[in-house]
Specification:
- This protein is α+β, with helices and mostly antiparallel strands.
- It folds into two domains: 112 residues, 2-Layer Sandwich (60s Ribosomal Protein L30, Chain: A); 166 residues, Alpha-Beta Complex (Phosphoribosyl-aminoimidazole Synthetase, Chain A, domain 2).
- Helices cover 31% and strands 23% of the residues.
- The chain is built from ten helices and 14 strands.
- The strands form three sheets. It has a seven-stranded mixed sheet.
- The longest helix has 18 residues.
- The N terminus is likely disordered.
- It comes from Saccharopolyspora rhizosphaerae.
- This is Hydrogenase expression/formation protein HypE.
Length: 363
Amino acid sequence: MSENVITGSREVAATAIDPGWSCPLPLRDSPTIVMGHGAGGALSAELVEHLFLAGYGEANGGDGGDAAVLPLPGCRVAFSTDSYVVKPTFFPGGNVGDLAVNGTVNDVAMSGARPQFLSTAFIIEEGTSMEDLGRVARTMGEAALRAGVRLVTGDTKVVDSGHGDGIYVNTAGIGIVDDGVDVRPSRASVGDKVLVSGPLGLHGVAVMSSRHGVEFGTAVRSDTAPLNGLVTEMLATGADIHVLRDPTRGGLAASINEIARAAQVGIRIDERSLPVPDSVVNACGLLGLDPMLVANEGKLIAIVPADDADRVLEAMRRHELGAEARVIGECVAEHPGTMVARTGLGATRVVDLPLGEQLPRIC
């Protein structure tokens, strides 16, 4: 669809559209930050590339991944940081505390590393309940024990009432990368199989339901969970795993597009193979959302050589967090840098990187 079909000219849009409505896809030439810049889609990528990296200049030493793998004397370490501003603070299946621990553990694990240590920093709005803050702290401790990591340093800041939104959490994580492990998006290769560890869209729908008080027939709980144990089992097969990624903001579509562009391969997904629960299908149908764009917090994508796919899949299914793992697609030589989906009718459609986020403040 052309830009004119979507928006028309700005003059036409200003007169033809009710002023009480707003487009969820912000203008790309906005002179100020909009919510879409923090959504993990095209706007986020442009902000990082054209503002932050340009500003850092020669000081930039990263490769654009969720975790940087850094050489140190005698070993390699993975280092990652992330901030969590989910709204509401508490949602079915979790809260900002275990989300922060699990999310950072997973970012480190997606580089093939064994997570070891996390930092925790809080930005707390004046007036926040001590009971709520204590509940978040306890949940973080429990999540760290489940993941096998230690919370070793941190910071606390308080902002004036009305200048925050409850509790924001920043975490950073460090892990050890074993010899022979080389997991990064640019290693995806033609012929590789694409695997997913389980049902998609649960986190996004759970937060949406809690935030807006909407029910979709059955209770939906977030899938937030630490994936490092699952990754350990996958690597133990000896397979040459090329890529691991947890499809959080922007969902499956954002992650697959980022991998395709990093490796300059085409990635073809079979929509009929996607494990989307009925509750997510119903919610997305009601709200006009694409399940491939809905956030997850306890699932991973793996891209592995075709010869290794069966044994990796078997190892995933033996782990509780991969019991419903399946192959959903493959890397192809056609349309490099692009994700396409084969529909139930046999047609093929392009699935582009989302511009912004269907549901902001998701993590």
